[in-house]
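Blinded run. Sample ID left blank on purpose so nobody reads anything into the name before looking at the predicted structure. Input follows.
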Amino acid sequence: MKTRLRILAMAAVACLAAPAQTPDPAKQEQESARGEAPAAKYVLTGATIFRGILIDAGCRDFSRFNLNLSPQALPAPAKEPDAKAAGSTTASGITVDAKTLDAERADAMPHQVADLVSRQSDPTCAIKGNTRAYALLMDDGRVADLDEGGNTFADAAVKADPQGRAMLTGQGPGFKPIVAVTGHIQGSRIVASAVKIAPR
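Blinded prediction complete.
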């Protein structure tokens, strides 16, 4: 009995000590060129399609109420001052003469470009021009961050979407698109192999 147990233990140790066989892509290519069946295939196992709303992972308020809010609307465009209304202006008890007002306005107005608003964060976690990391708000209320590859796929999907392009050029507000993310869960993140925005 002891001999049999020793033999089984040595066999188990030998199996564990054997190096793992990984398929060699060059060998597989040679085998398929000769018409032989490849020794092993690379198969992505456990891939699932997760559906939900794509949001900014850098958002500070992940409360259910905040995540369900619509993105903030674009502010009204800044009005150019009327050239005929030259004169001093008083606000909060401070009077500024027309010459100083014109000099300050000339310095401030060129920076008010159309895409300035798109580069500022949205408090409702909508995707904006400054979004660098993405998360998925799933139907059951859970929020899962995308991995680095998923962020790349999501960024490409946002830039390919008409509403995303409008947002990036300052012609539209931030948005929360409904997406399908292909991948698998690893810890609290989704390791994504594809991100597609659902057609509206």
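Unblinding after everyone has recorded impressions. Confidence is low (pLDDT under 50) at residues 26-44.
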